[in-house]
Structure formats: structure tokens, C-alpha cells
Amino acid sequence: MDIRKRIEKLREEIDNHNYHYYVLDEPLIPDAEYDRLLRELRELEARHPELITPDSPTQRVGAEPVEAFGTVRHEVPMLSLDNAFSEEEVAAFHRRVSERLGQSAIDYTAEPKLDGLAVSLRYEKGVLAQGATRGDGYTGEDITQNVRTIPSIPLRLRGKGIPEVLEVRGEVYMSRSGFEALNARQRKAGEKTFVNPRNAAAGSLRQLDPRITAQRPLAIYCYGIGVVQGWALPERHSAVLERLKEWGLRVNDEIRVVRGVEGCLAYYRTLQARRDALDYDIDGVVYKVDLFSQQETLGFVSRAPRWAIAHKFPAQEALTKVLAIDIQVGRTGALTPVARLEPVFVGGATVTNATLHNEDEIHRKDVRVGDTVVVRRAGDVIPEVVSVVKERRPRGAAPFEMVKTCPVCGSDVMRNEGEAVARCTGGLYCPAQRKEAIKHFASRKAMDIEGLGDKLVDQLVDKGLVSNVADLYTLTRAQLAGLERMGEKSAANLVRAIEDSKATTLARFLYALGIREVGEATALALANHFGKLSGLMAASEETLQTVPDVGPVVAANIHAFFRQAHNREVIERLRQAGVHWKDLDIRRAEALPLQGKTFVITGRLDTMTRDEAKARLQALGAKVAGSVSSKTDYVVAGEDPGSKYDKALALGIEILDEQGLLNLLAG
Ligand code: 9MJ
Fold first, then answer.
1. pLDDT digits over 410-466, tens only?
2. Quick check: CB of 283 below 6 Å from ligand 1?
3. Contact residues for 45 (Cβ-Cβ < 8 A; gap 6+)
4. Are 624 and 633 in contact (CB under 8 A)?
5. Is the predicted pLDDT of residue 589 greater than 70, yes or no?
6. What is the 171 CA–ligand 1 centroid distance (Å)?
7. Which atom in ligand 1 lies closest to the alpha carbon of residue 118?
């Protein structure tokens, strides 16, 4: 075939795969096949450099560095948005819009507000001609060579009716996963890491050397247009977004058209609840009047349109001071440094403590008492110290030093080679470890002793009423009623709850023992494999390793646990006290109907919680995993399933609806 034709054919094919991959999020071919096409094109172009065009998919590696960016005048200014920080402010916005338009049934597009950098992309005859930053809205910087390296920005548009000139606007951002990968890479190379995805995106896009930009995981979502020539605009903003997508531009698929203020607020709440599940940072949502005729009637005030508003989420990061760094002792003796903070309102709640993870993390961030720090609280995640504002460090602030002895029991602190955590060596001699072990024993997924909360366990241990889990079963109403915040009634309830917990399952009991690295799933696998406790207690490390998911480390932990005389004693006392379960017939255990099958559950179920579904599947021998992979056998999809559902479709994994699940559970 004619070389020129082959090259053109390859470019078309690659562009098409890029479109399916980046815009539609539905790859058509495996990565290796795509790489093969790109390699063939590169080789042909290397042999025929005269055939290289600027819009060839090979031309993304990054041009030569520049001294400084040129400037670009925005013919149509890039406006900013007014902000609303509460539902009342959104209602006031809607009222203003309705009054000016003389009607209240207004359609809005509701869009996630990406936390990145606004850019403008100018396409001439469908070919990317210029990329610019927003700058002050009137003039920005020419970053054409940088945007050309971003894979989701097409170098030429596809499809029919492409305008003579089309200026597209959108947000360049870095995905969370891309950010994590970049930081890991930077750390490995001994280079500086980035504080958050926004800073990383900004630092990457505003590089004078586009070859560096090319190595950074940047992406774009387009959300509007500027200059247009040769296109009779549709009536609605939402229709423009549809066309942009057809032309190969990436548009966020969370964008919806909603009606009135109720529609806006419902969208806001839904997206806020799903915020942590997204792979990109958003700092709110944007509402835009959908009809262009209405946008024109509304017009602008100074720098912002009257037809749009950004409804911000509560800030997830704030500045505060470190008052102290305390060391917490966990159930397994792990020592976790915790920053005590001057109270600060962040992410919708007041935060007074933040985890510092471990010694290495503190040194990496160089957190010291007295420092002003950025704390982050995202969703239900434990608040953490992100970084230190070094400029505000008080004179004489000393570097952090890890304790050499346990702050609770005084035992030596040990840190195993290759491990980030330091541990108290006191074992159950250490009251902190004892308390945590008892709290774990009583927790919902273990022995499920309702009413035995953390504060109560602290009191029981501090008063010497309980020193190991077996002592719980000797507690009397009178003893309990004498404790702080306990009345006769709650004491009686607790005694009953302790009594009720005696009837349990072997899996729960094993999990409750708190053997290191024996979680719920492993406990269940052990119970199903051995059927009864005696066999498990006598098992060698080799035998233990034949259980699914039990590797050498876990096997060693289990073996060591049952060799300890005091552990065997506690177990004996628990059984004497009446803790019991039904032993499994191992022949049945092996023949469990879902043995060897892996499930993933996504979405909301009507007849049970996801935890219940998990427990019922596990009881039939199934494994329930958190993410979909080629090893997944079934995905159970309830209402509003997440990306796991899409992944299952892509991988061709069998999908069960709730009825399908119920049928399966019914055998
Ligand atoms: C962001 N940042 O995601 C706009 N934006 O519209 C969306 N920003 C915007 N729209 C007009 N989705 C000016 C800015």
C-alpha cells in the first residue's frame, strides 16, 4: 500500500481509539494492540519525516523548551464564577434568575466543579491551533506546546459539521490515581513531591519544558465554548456539550440537566455523597442556565455571568496549629503519632486531632510541635496533616523524636526492619493494648456485645475489673451499675448483651481473638477449613498455609498465638464461661456451594445491607472482594451502582441484580 495512505489510515485508527478510550471511556482494543499501531506509525514517520504533520498522534512527546510563554488575548473573556456557600445562597441565585426571566421553571445544567486550571483550546478547521491559560480572564499565557502533550486533548476534531473556528474551554486536572503515581515516582527519584492534585496539575501545565508536561498524568474536561465561527449554535448549553463530545472532546459524564432550585440542590447532595468515590478532586458544583436565549437576557455583572453560579463544598483543607504530638497505642501495640490541634472547622466538622501515620511520615513532612499545618478532612476519612507551612515555624521548634518506651506501660518500643510502624513490646501487659483487644473482642463483627463502648472498656480496665476478655463474662450487674454513666437499667442490658454474645460462630470467635492480620475474611476461611477450634489450634504452619489466603506471615502469627499459654488459658476460660458455637462438619465445609467464587457488591440493595449480603455470601463459602478484577466471578449490582459495574461490563463479568442474588442465596 501507498505509504502516505497507510500513515493516514494509522492516524485515523489511533485517533479513533483515543476517542473511545478518553472520551467515551470504552476502550476498543487492549493497550498492547494500541501500542503496536503507534509503533508502526512512528517507524513509518521516522523513515518519511516529510510526511509528519503537527496533528499526528505521534506529535505529543513535547516540543523544545521555551524561555517564556507568549501572551494570548481572549477575544471572548474567560469569566470567573460567583460562589454560593449555602443552600440559601443558591435559592437567592435562583430567585434572581427567575425574577429577571419572569418565570420560575428554569432548566439548569448541573456540573461537577473540577479543581484544576481553566484553559482555552482553539481549533481552526478542526485542528488544534492554540492552547492558553485563563490568566486574568482577558489575557492568558500561550501553552499550546504543553496542551498538545495531554492525551485526552484531541489534536484534531472528528465527526461532521466541524466549525471553521471553535474555541473550547475546560479544566485541565490531574486524577487522584495519577497524582499518587506521580508522587510515588518523584519520591523514588528523590525529587520533590506535590501537596495535592491541583498543585501538581498547575506545576505540570505551566512548565517551560513541554517534555516534562508530557510525562505528567494530565487530563481535561471541557465545559464550554468561546469564539465560534461557522456554526449555528444549538439552543442549549447542554446540546453544545453533546456536540463537543461527538467532536472528540472529553466532557464529564456526571453533567445533568435539572429543573429549578430543588433540582440543583438534589444534584449537589448526590454528588457530595459520591465525592470521595470520584477519581478527581471537585470543590463544588456549577449551575448554568441551560437556554442560551435566557443566558443572553441575564447578561453579566463585572467579571461573572448572571446565569451561572458555583455552589462550593465545605473546604476540605484548613490551617491550624499543632499543640502536641501524642502517641496512641493500638491493639497490636502499633504506636501511632497523633497531632493534637487547635480546633479548626474543616470538611464540615470541627477537627482537634489528625493522624500523622508513623515516624517516617512525620520526618518526611517534618512536622513539629508549634508548627502551622494544613489539615485535611475528606468525607469520613480520618483527618490528616498534609503539610507544614515552614515560614510560620516558631523559633526553637524541635524535630520530632519517636519514644523509646511505650507511653502507657513503659515497655521497650521495637521497630522491625522494613516496617514503618513501631510497636510496644508489652503485649497484654500493656493496658492500652488490653483495652484495644477488649474493644475489638466486643465489636459488632466480632462478639457483637451491644452497649460495651470504648469509654466503658477504659473504665473497666482502669478500675481493674477486667484485664482480659474472659473477665467480661464474670461481670455482675452490681459491678457495672457502679460505673460512671451507668444506671441499673443499662447495667442489666449490658449483662444480657454479654450473656447473648455467648452463642456465636467459630468465625466470629476467631476474628474476636484479634490475632494479628486475621481479619473477618481470614477468620471465616479458617473456620470453613478446620470446622472446629481444636484442629486449628493444633495445626502446623504448613497446614495453615493450605487455607485459602493464608500466607507464611499469617500462618506464623496464628501458630505463635496458639502456642502462648496465656492465650490458650483465656480461650479455655471463655469456653468454661459458656461461649459456644456449632462446629462445622468439614465435609460440608469443603462442599460449600460458593467455595472458590469471588463476588464484588456495588450499589444499594433493598432487602439487606451490603454487609449482610457479604456475610451471607461468605457463609456459603464465597469470597467478597472490594474491587473488580479479572479474578471476579460475579458482580452484584444494586441501585445506582458505581464504576465497579462499568468495569464488570468491560471485563465481561457476570452481573447479578438483587433478585439474582436472592435466588443464589436461596440455593
Ligand atoms: C469547572 N471548573 O469544572 C465552569 N467549571 O463555566 C465548570 N468551570 C465555568 N464550568 C463558566 N464545570 C466559567 C467557568
1. 999 999 888 889 999 888 789 999 999 999 999 999 999 999 999 999 999 999 999
2. no
3. 7, 51, 52, 56, 58
4. no
5. no
6. 7
7. 2
Mapping DSSP onto H, E and C, the string for 427-495 reads: HHHCHHHHHHHHHHHHCCCCCCCCCCCHHHHHHHHHCCCCCCHHHHHHCCHHHHHCCCCCCHHHHHHHH
**Close Cβ partners of 207 (under 8 Å, ≥ 6 residues apart):** 146, 213
| Euclidean distance between CA atoms 330 and 514, whole angstroms | 12
Sign of CA dihedral 22, 23, 24, 29: negative
User: What pLDDT does residue 403 have?
Assistant: 94
Spatial neighbors of 275 by CB under 8 A, at least 6 apart, are: 282, 313, 378, 379
**Whether the CB of 308 sits within 6 Å of ligand 1:** yes
At a CB cut-off of 8 Å and minimum separation 6, what does 15 contact? 57, 154, 156, 158, 248
Candidates 122, 117, 115; CA nearest to 73 is 122
- The yes-or-no verdict on residue 146 having pLDDT over 90 is yes
**pLDDT reported for residue 380:** 66
**Residues 179/247, Cβ–Cβ less than 8 Å:** no
- What digits encode the pLDDT tens for the residues 201-215? 999 999 999 999 999
Nearest CA to ligand 1 atom 1: 113
Q: Which three cell numbers stand for residue 422?
A: 513501631
* Ligand 1 contacts CB of residue 84 (under 6 A): no
Q: What is the dihedral sign for C-alpha 356, 359, 363, 366?
A: positive
Q: Is 521 left (phi over 0), alpha (psi -120 to 50) or beta?
A: alpha
Count of beta carbons in the 10 Å neighbourhood of residue 482: 13
The residue nearest atom 5 of ligand 1, judged by CA position, is: 113
Cα-to-chain-centroid distance, residue 227: 37
Q: What percent of the chain has pLDDT over 90?
A: 74
319 CA distance to ligand 1 middle (Å): 26
Q: Is the CB of 81 under 6 A from ligand 1?
A: yes
Report, as residue numbers or ranges, the catalytic residues. Answer: 113
The rounded Å distance from CA 594 to ligand 1 centre is 48
CA-to-CA separations, 337 to 384, 436, 514, in angstroms, rounded: 11, 16, 22
Measured from the CA of 114, which atom of ligand 1 is nearest?
3
**Which residue, among 194, 163, 208, has the nearest Cα to 68 in the 3D structure?**
208
Candidate from 128-132, 241-245, 464-468 with smallest mean pLDDT: 464-468
Is 123 touching ligand 1 by the criterion CB < 6 Å?
A: no
The pLDDT value given to residue 465:
94
Range with the lowest mean pLDDT among 186-190, 314-318, 401-405? 314-318
Report whether residue 79 contacts ligand 1, using a CB cutoff of 6 Å. yes
The tens digit of pLDDT for each residue in 91-116 reads 999 999 999 999 989 999 999 999 89
With the CA atoms of 286, 291, 292 and 297 taken in that order, what torsion angle do they form, in degrees rounded to the nearest 10?
-90
Measured in angstroms, how far is the CA atom of residue 303 from the centroid of ligand 1? Answer: 14
* Separation between Cα atoms, residue 64 and residue 66, nearest integer Å: 7
579, 540 contact by CB (below 8 A):
no
**Among the listed residues 170, 81, 60, the one whose alpha carbon sits nearest the alpha carbon of residue 122:** 170
Do 358 and 348 form a contact (C-beta atoms < 8 A)? no
Q: Calculate the alpha carbon distances from 18 to 43, 150, 439, 524 in Å.
A: 19, 11, 52, 45
* Centroid of ligand 1 to alpha carbon of 332 (angstroms): 48
Q: Tell me: the pLDDT tens digits for 626-652? A: 888 888 999 999 988 888 888 888 888
Strands annotated E in 183-294: 218-229, 256-259, 282-289
